[in-house]
Each structure stands twice: as C-alpha cells, then as structure tokens.
C-alpha cells in the first residue's frame, strides 16, 4: 500500500525541514566556504540553532537581513552589502548564496545581483559565488541539499586529463559516516574527492587557535577536479530519477554509479562491489572481516528480533536504505514514511516489500500525525528515525532508535555511524539491545540472562 | 587574568575591532559599543538594523511573536501560516514548560501546526488553505482559541489573515485571531514581541470580568517559564501571600489572560518583551506596574519587598519577611560552599532583552564580575532607563509596527491607587513604572555592546579571557572551542529553574561546576607540557 495522500490539509508535526537548511549543510562541507541566506535574518538564525542542536558544533550562516523596505523594493542592496561584509570579515573562497521564501516570493533576480556585485568589485580578489534557489515552499531540506551539491558541480567542475580519482557524493550522512567512507575508499587505494565533506567542520576537536571558518571540507581545487574523475559514486535511490549531481559529470564522460545508501549487507555489498571493480582490487581483509562479523551477529540475534514490527521515518533515501536493512535482519518495516513527496520512495519500497512477500504501508508527504494515526493500528514494536518521533514513541510506549537528523535529545548526533558493514553493525546491536532491554524492563521476573 | 576590582581599559580593543570594518560599518558599530563611565550620561545605539552579512545573534519578528510570547500558552492552537521551515524551527525549541491543572486539560504546546504552503499557494494565495487548516484544528481538538502567525511570504502575497480569522471566529464561535508577524518586520524579534502584545491586548485581555477570590492580586509579565522558572515563582508568590491572576506567558492559559485586567498590580520581569502590555493595561484599566527581577536570591527578596510595599499591608509585609528569612537560609548555605571557588572570576553576558541585565545579580552574589554585556534585541530604554523614552527617534523600522491607540475603559477603568497614593509611594522610594536599565548596573570601564557580532565576540573573548560567557546555543560551541565555558541563558543548557530562591541555588551550583571544571586541563597531553613538570612528576613517583 503506497500513498502520498494526506489525511488533512494542514501539516501537523512535520516530518521534513526546509530547503535552505540543506544548502547550509552542504556549504559547511566545503573548505573556506560560507553560506549566505538571502532573506530575513530569522532564517539564518533558526537554521543555525537547529543544526547546532544536532551537531553541537559552531555553524555560521550569514544573512542579507531584509527589513520591510527590502521586501518591498527588492533585496539587491542587501545582498551586495552582505557579500561585501562577508568577504571583508571572513575571506571565504566560496560563498553559497541560497534564497529563502522571502526573496523567492518577491522574485529577486539573484544571478543579476551577483553579476552586478562582481562587476562593481572586478579589481579585488573575489571568492567564487554559487547561487542556489531554495524557497522553502518547494520540496524539503533534501532538495536544498541535493541542489546545492549539483550547483557546486555545475558551477565549478571542469574537464581535463582523466585521473584515477573517484568522485563520491555521500548525501546527507553523518560526519562519522563520512570519515568511514573516506577510510574505505582509501583502503581500496583509490584517490577520491568527497562532496560535501563536513566530517571535520561538524565534528571537530577543540581549537588551539581561533578559526574564523573551521578547517576541513572539500577544497575548491578538488571540486574543479571532479570533472576529471574516472567515476562518480552517489548515494540515494531517489537520485536515479531525480536531481543527481552525478548527471552533469556524465557530460565530462565520468562514469556514474547511483547506489542506495550502503546500509545492511545487500546495499553495502553493492558499494564494495563497485569499489572492487573501479580499483581492480579485492575487498581489503578488514572489511571482509567486518562483513563476516555482521552476518555472524545477524544469526546470533535472530531470536530477539525476527518478525518484530518497526515504523521507519525520515528522509526518503535514508528510509529506503534502512528498510532494506530491516528486511534483511528479519524486522518488518510495517510503515515507512517521509515528509517528501517525490513519489520515488513509494515505488521502490512497495517492490522491496513484495520481494520479501510483505505488504507494507509506504507514505510520502506524511507528517507525524499521519504516522501516529496509522501506527495505532499496526502495533509496532519500535520506531526508527530522528528525535521528532519521540512524541509517538512516548504515546505508544515503544522505543525509538535514533538515526539520521535531527537527534537533539541525545548527545553525539554527528558521531552516529550508519553506513557500511561497521555502521550496520552498530545499528544492529543498538536495535537488538533496545528490544532486549524493553523485554527485560517489562518482564515481571528480573532476568539478567537473556 | 584581570584583577577583579580594576578593569582594564577596553578602549584599545574597541578601536582595534572598529579598524577592521569598512569605514561606514565602523561608524555605525562605534555607536553601539560603549565604554562605561558612570559619572557621565551615556548614549548607546540600539534597536537598529543589523548590517547584512554580519553574523548576528538576532532572530525575526515571527520568532518573537510565535516563539517567545505566544509559545508558552498551552490551550491556544498556534498555526504557522507559511512554508514549513518556520513552524518546524519554532517547535518546542524554547524549552518553556507548562503544567495543565488536570490530566484532561489541554496542552497543544507539543504540537506544530503549519499550513505548509507550496508553490501553488504562493501563486494563487493561501487564504483557502488557512481557512481549512483552522477548520481542521477545530474539528480535531475543539480548542477555545486558535491563533495564526504569518511568515515572510504571507504579507507579500497579500493574504488577509485577519479577515480569515474574523470569518472563522464567527463561523466556529471560538476566539480566532491572527498576527502579521512576518520575519522582515522590524529589526529583530523585538518587533514580534510588540505585535504579540498588541494582539493579545486586542483579542484576549478583558474578555472575562469575573473577579476571583484572593488578596494582593498581581500579574507577572515577561516570565516565560524556561526550565520551570514560573513554577518556582508561583511557589514563592503563593507562600508570600500574593494571588497570581495571570502570567504573560509562562505556564499560562487563555482564561487567565482574559481575566488579567482584574489584577491590582503588574510586575514586569522582561521589560523589553512585555512593557507594552503593562502600559496598555495601565491606561485602559488603571493597573500600575513595577519592574521586578526574580533572577538572583537578593534580587528576588528585593522584588518581593517592593511588591509588599506597594500593597502596604502589614501582614503581607511580615509574611514576605518571614519567607525571605526561611528561603535565604538554604541559599546562604550553598553560597558558603560555592562562592569561595567563584569569587573574582569574570563573566560576559550577551543575551536577550533583559537577561544580560538580570543575570549580573546572580554573578554578583557569587562574587563574580560582569566585565562586558549587551542585549541581542534591546532598545535604548533597556540600556539607559526609561527616562530616555521621549528622546528615542522613531525610525522607519519601528514605525511599521502598529502602535495601538488605547483609552480609558469607560466602565472598567479603576485606578488601583489614587494619584496622591502613587506620589507618596514614589516619594518613599518605591519606583512605580520605572526601569533604570542595564547600564546603571555596569561599573567604570566595563564594556556595553549592542547586537554583538561573531567577530566582535571572538575579539572580546581574546581580550578579556573570561571564566564564563553567557549567550545562547548559536554561540555555545564556538565559544567553548576557545576553551571558555558557555552557559546558555535562553534554554539554560537543559537545566533550570534559575529564578527565585531555589533557582539561585541551582545557578550557583551550575556556575561553580562550569568555571571550576578541569576538562580544559586535559587539552594539552602530558608529553607536550613543559619538560620540567614531567621530570618533577617522575621524581614524585
């Protein structure tokens, strides 16, 4: 059963965030870059405070700070002043100018303002300015994210002599996931450029000296070099039909692999298979061992989780990959929901359910009130998703396995590992132990040997 | 580290900061950075537009209206009219708490309602969707009130939210009202506070004339129950013998707002966000107001005494004195333990429109010195005191916030004190309707900075090397990267309460832990520390 029909006109307890947040995240993963939101300053402030509550790291986002006059007469002067001040204070190499619903509604011509700004400042050493259209009335934070990666590729990547390099577009994953991905690709002996890479900027150590723009991220030169890669690997099932940043690289004859986020054995195998193919090397022993241990633990723990029912929610690509993993370990994701409404998820998951001989409910364009309404009839054993599912977990008195974003009611959101054999192992152990803990806590007998 | 008594002259650092700005920006910022000299009258520039591109602490009118003032009320359904972002970001993020009287009583604060406008609504208008959203909320929850908050695109596409609200109020027979609190209004969240005050005053205050039982009736204004502050204050007020009619708006409900004009005194905590309400209630209903501060044990005691003197009842005064004596015993016990470890340490405070002032009291009690402070969205009167109000020029950004024209209510205006009584109380030193502002609190050569930027924060931390910095979540992790602990005074770092007597105790303990933590000692590994020390350690082994 798949549906994008909402029960109500209004959205109650949304299961999505707005597009400029996705753009802001991508520019946190570019070295010496700063994101500037073109609109009223509340957008930058809200998005900063929200990202920070998950990552617990500094997040600087500039704003062109519209007042009423700019809203009426256009925000050109505000944008140009903002660019001037950002340049003089932060000396960024790249500025991402993302729009907001305000500047989009009044129809500000941002590319024109940017070119006027460049003309007026032609003698100074200007940063690269990349524009992305991100009104929050269109799509979700994931559209802002994917569009920004694509905008960076389109604006900066150039053709040139072919290298062995792999381009890797991981999608919206955690800093811990990014570090692990880099480790994997390096262990295959492949040079790589990952975009974005906020593994350091959004999960960094204390500073010995002040960093106006925190260190880390994909460099300008690396983004330019993307056009010379031998292949691009991008994660996200929805990218097959949607806004792929790998697609423009195909124009430079870069071979494109669009894979699901590597969660669980099946999807991780696909990723490692591609790496074997591209590197001409066998999977390094440590990963073969990780894979072996993961399957070993599946076998060990099946009695605790087999046929348990889960409700899964979050970004479409995360939900699809997690559903594949849950099916694999014997858990039935009875309801898979996302606030996005691209329609891609419904088809993929209904087919996946059919392969496992299960009819599952798949809902795009869903909010938490839709999820709760349906959950009441499904008798789920646990929820899998971000902190916003807590209210439902509390109401149904079932545990919530926190993954993805935002996780603001626990520490370590940035260090959650989801990907590859190692990430799947962590998820698996967490899920099984949560179920055991529940059984133990609700038992009338004080078992300590399960 | 600087000596506690003699502050280093910050003029040089002010000049260094300004020298890095383009001349026009430097001129503007110069007026918002004041080196204190209490012997002279000093002006500060405040409540002016933030310079685009300068990373600011400030939020927007919507945040001030929906998030701050209306957010803590449990039984009004708040619908955000606009695309999804704003509703999501203001969903429970301020940590204001509420306690419905019974299990069956409503609490809508954990919900986020949004019209989630899409492309087509922006093009063809969102009134229809708003109407349906209000109807749905009514059908599902049968609330006593629904309010609507406009985000940026709404004013621009010309949705008449007020007309929709009137229409639905008529149709549903419940109170429905709307706020034009688009994010581009005004220069900060302060505009949203004003819009919220106006809306509550127009649509809710005065709807219920029932006179409740009880003596010494008050409203508490500008207290938002972050971390349970209002619960502690309700406890204290009850013990002291006051009857709390309504709080604006911590732990509040609609019925209490509606009845609030029956109180005999308004006490104001956060002057910035709610002084409009106090003034309008005074003009229309004759209720005087007192500025109070329940942040800090001594400040709480002082405020309770002020309130008792206003009513002038001997029994009340005695009861307040007994309460203070009882409560201070526990407070002093904790201070004896914590103060010696905190004394002489330095604090910087950049928060809110009142907290940067109020929290100086708590630091004073610990023997700590506030060397540098400022507001995020304060106005000149919050810095310099209300006597500057007539001098404040109304600029274009303030002019577009509606100023309600309020008159005496023919039937319900009742002066709580005669002009003669007020004069006499004032003569005896009771500051009725007065507020002296933050600058009066700050000593010679301390530094006051309005709407501090990220860059200024960094420079000033380098200069002062404070033991603690107080701001919000946006500043927390960048300041801590520099090895300075940051205490969040918006969300209290998930702790609290910090108001009242028990709150003061919580705060002392928390600050003691923070300024004396040894985490920072671990930054440099032993092998990078100076060789002599390591040798010495070997010897001692």
Topology:
The complex is a heterodimer of chains A (450) and B (541).
Chain A (H helix, E strand, L loop, with lengths): L1 E2 L7 E2 L6 H10 L4 E6 L2 H15 L5 E3 L4 H6 L2 H15 L3 E6 L1 H5 L4 H11 L7 E5 L8 H16 L9 E4 L5 H13 L4 E3 L25 H6 L5 E5 L11 H4 L4 E5 L4 H16 L5 H21 L3 E5 L2 H13 L3 E6 L6 H12 L5 E3 L4 H8 L6 E4 L4 H7 L3 E3 L17 H23 L8
Parallel strand pairs in A: 1-13, 3-4, 3-5, 5-6, 7-8, 7-9, 9-10, 11-12, 11-14, 12-13, 14-15
Chain B lengths: L10 H9 L3 H8 L2 E3 L25 H10 L5 E6 L2 H6 L23 E2 L4 H6 L2 H15 L3 E6 L1 H6 L3 H12 L2 E5 L9 H15 L13 E7 L5 H12 L2 E7 L4 H6 L5 E4 L2 H15 L3 E3 L5 H15 L2 H29 L3 E5 L4 H11 L3 E6 L5 H5 L11 H4 L19 H9 L19 E3 L4 H11 L3 E4 L1 H9 L4 E3 L11 H16 L15 H10 L1
Parallel strand pairs in B: 2-3, 2-4, 4-5, 6-7, 6-8, 8-9, 10-11, 10-13, 11-12, 13-14
Antiparallel strand pairs in B: 1-12
What does this structure look like?
The complex is a heterodimer of chains A (450) and B (541). In chain A, 45% of the residues lie in helices and 14% in strands. Chain A contains 17 helices and 15 strands. Chain A has helices at residues 19-28, 41-55, 68-73, 76-90, 101-105, 110-120, 141-156, 175-187, 220-225, 247-250, 264-279, 285-305, 316-328, 344-355, 368-375, 390-396, 420-442, and strands at residues 2-3, 11-12, 33-38, 61-63, 94-99, 128-132, 166-169, 192-194, 231-235, 255-259, 309-313, 332-337, 361-363, 382-385, 400-402. Among the domains of chain B are: 61-184, Rossmann fold (3-Layer(aba) Sandwich), CATH 3.40.50; 217-341 and 385-427, Nitrogenase molybdenum iron protein domain (Rossmann fold). In chain B, 44% of the residues lie in helices and 12% in strands. Chain B is globular. Chains A and B meet through strand 2, helix 1, helix 2, strand 4 and helix 3 of A and helix 3, helix 4, strand 3, helix 5 and helix 6 of B. Strand 2 of chain A pairs antiparallel with strand 3 (113-114) of chain B, so a sheet runs across the interface.
